[in-house]
Design goal:
Layout lengths: L2 H15 L10 E2 L8 E3 L1 H9 L3 H13 L4 E7 L3 E6 L1 H13 L12 E5 L11 H19 L3 E5 L7 H13 L22 H17 L1 H15 L6 H26 L16 H10 L3 E4 L2 E4 L13 E4 L7 H16 L3 E7 L3 H14 L7 E7 L2 E2 L16 H18 L7 H22 L6 E2 L2 H4 L7 H20 L13 H11 L1 H11 L3 H19 L9 H24 L9
Parallel strand pairs: 5-6, 5-10, 10-11, 12-13
Antiparallel strand pairs: 1-2, 2-4, 3-4, 7-8, 8-9
Helix pairs in contact: 2-3, 4-17, 6-7, 6-8, 7-8, 8-9, 11-12, 13-14, 14-19, 16-19, 16-20, 17-19, 18-19, 19-20
The structure holds arginine (ARG).
Length: 590
Amino acid sequence: MSLSSYLNNVVKQSFTNNGITIDEKVIKLSDRPDLSQFQCNAAFELAKSMKQNPRVIAEKIVSDLKENPIFKDVSVAGPGFINISLNDTFLANFIQEMSIDPQMGIKADKPKKILIDYGGANVAKPLHVGHLRSAIIGEGLKRLAKELGHDVIGDVHLGDWGRPLGIVISEIKRRNPELVYFDENYQGEYPTESPVTMDDLNEIYPTASAAVKEDEERMIEARDATAILQDENKPGHRGYHALWQHIVDESIKDLKKSYDNLGVNFELWRGESDCFKSIPEMMDIFESKKLLRQSNGATIMEVDEPEDATKVPPLILKTQSGSVGYQTTELATIYERVKEFNPDEIWYVVDGRQEMHFKQVFRGAYKSGIVPKDTRLRFIGFGTMNGKDGKPFKTRDGGVMKLADLLELVQESAEKKLEESGLQGLSEEEIKSTAYKISDATIKYADALSNRTTDYIFDIDKFTETQGKTGPYILYSAVRINSLLKKALENGIEPGKVQAPTKEEERMLMLTISRLPDIVDMAFENKSLTEIANYLFELNSAYNTFYNSTRIISEDDNDKRQSWVQLSKMVGKINKKLLDTMSIEEPERM
Ligand code: ARG
């Protein structure tokens, strides 16, 4: 149990002893750390409804708590607030307990089965900066959930089935109509080698997608190609499908490399296309429940509700040309996920601009009963990463910023800074690999720190600073702690039992360490890494303040020295754990 939950129980008990029952939390960190460590506002807040004087209630609680030896100071402040500070020995013992728990107090009350849909990469297109947030937030939430003891499965849910594939295939057909894939009468085996490489695809998609927007005829070709790809009974389907498979395989090879480099791993590499076989079955269910309607040749399901402030449009389950799109595959994927995994929750870490899509889909899923009422579907939307001009991030020459471009940009800047800092004795190779880790941390930390739901500006100068809330600051601090621990070990100093703090810097550090389980709970609750990024900064700042005022290795008192090494070790361990949730690796030196 976390320190604050423990305190909360103690203080609540005191209210109960005085005939007052409260459901909410009664303890919070003090707004005035110079006056106390914690505060309780419950007496003040309850007094009105109880028609009593808040100070009178507060005084009763205080006199009760004063009996308890875990407190050093308990007093009434102002109109009825209670200030609380802990006894130093109690605090040290609490930290000592945390130090021997491998989970350091991190644990969920009730483990759940959660399927996380994140990544969302599209076949035939490289990752762009928009995919970064989904990858980092999704992977981070997955790792947090695992850390808490939940059973989690991550699925990349590749965009591999809709119109974009028809656009690519029709473009290939225009360029190379002689390819065997376009010969309707061909009966033999198709080549094992793909006719297009990923480099080809990187050029084909943008060209073709611009072309269909300009040219109605090409749009019709793309639509037809999509329909042939999706319908087994259409002439030419077999060749289209074989070509499609090559495109998917080439893309997956490339995407796996990109995600690997980011340290992002999916348990499942499924795509929109995988649910295809379940669509007729699902449509039958919809049909039998009389949920479908024809509208202008399309098959739709109404999902609006009378209390909607803005109208929620119907789901389009089959287009006029008979093909299915994003909404249909989304629903059929849910249908399959429920059958195969029966999760307690499904989370979607997707661009905030897709909120309406998920609102429609979730309504359709519950309404039709393909998802049980108690299975929670959650949309975890995120804002856009913008450039300094506040507009979606572009490359220097105005093109779409691919993820690889961004990584390169930040890496260049990290290398330059490393060289300027004149780090002694690093080989060129070490500079490169360290610069890679720093730039990776720069991007991921900045992204994690930014409020999940709002847009943010990627300010490369600010994010690469070595002071303040930045990836480089946390890494410097982590590297320093690791090297101190190494030095301690070389000097034969083992981490020992945590001693009562003897100065404010040490007390503050212990209090900060004690917050870890609450921070993880809060991040999980809010489905956000911002709390983790902020806490890493607070923890390392508290550690550095302590470090700057303490001579750890050369301290004469062995108990103190060992206790300080223990505190350092705990901070090192928390750094590693939390950086790991952001898929950030610590360099050896920097
Ligand atoms: N491929 C989609 C896109 O790039 C994102 C997929 C998100 N996941 C989902 N289940 N719809 O917009």
